[in-house]
Every structure is written in structure tokens, then in C-alpha cells.
Design a protein that fits this description.
The chain has helices at residues 38-45, 53-69, 85-92, 96-104; strands spanning 8-13, 18-24, 27-34, 80-83. Helix content is 40%, strand content 24%. With 106 residues, the chain is an alpha+beta fold.
């Protein structure tokens, strides 16, 4: 799909990093890359195929630490667009509403 994102934020969670772009009135205000991606978080924190509760907590802490150090928009974006395979996988998850709520901090 194509989305005309004039104002808001876009994110792409890759295997090695996460990209965040802030857009306002069709112009990029800020773009940054965080050193957390789905594969490197898995490799650093998970010992077997399925993560244990403490490993999930370690992943959550590492992602939270990276987000706290990021230069995120000062105000809540009116529209957020996730791109790439991880965003599509979240939408296909058994509980996308719960997952979306978790990502938004709600």
C-alpha cells in the first residue's frame, strides 16, 4: 500500500536496527537509527528458540533503554506508519490490538 504521510512518524524495525523518521508538512524533520533490531535483540538475549520470561524482560529493557536515549518527537504524532516485515508481522499476530497497545505504551 501507499500512504501519503504529510505529518507524523514512520518506523522500520529491521534485523539490526530501528529507523525512526519524523515528518511535518511533507518535510523530514528528523531521522535516526537506533541500534536495536529484532535479530540482534534475539541474538543477544535469547538462549534457545523460544524466549523465556526473563529473556523477554531483557529484550524489553534493552529496547526501552534505546528508546529513552532516542530523540523522539516532543509531541504525539497524529499518524504513525510502520514499514517493513516486522510491522507486517505485528499486524498478522494473533492479537494485533494488544501488540499495538503495548507498542504505544497504553
Amino acid at each position: 500500500r501507499t500512504l501519503d504521510l504529510r505529518s507524523g512518524a514512520m518506523f522500520d524495525i529491521g534485523g539490526g536496527s530501528t529507523e525512526i523518521v519524523e515528518v511535518e508538512k511533507g518535510r523530514i524533520l528528523r531521522a535516526q537509527s537506533l541500534p536495536v533490531g529484532s535479530l540482534n535483540l534475539f541474538d543477544r538475549h535469547v538462549s534457545k528458540i523460544w524466549p523465556k520470561r526473563r529473556e523477554l524482560e531483557a529484550i524489553t529493557q534493552a529496547a526501552g533503554k534505546a528508546l529513552r536515549s532516542a530523540e523522539l518527537p516532543g509531541k504525539k504524532a497524529e499518524r504513525v506508519c510502520g514499514v517493513g516485515g516486522t510491522a507486517r508481522a505485528v499486524l498478522k499476530s494473533p492479537t494485533p490490538t494488544m501488540t499495538a497497545r503495548w507498542w504505544s505504551g497504553g
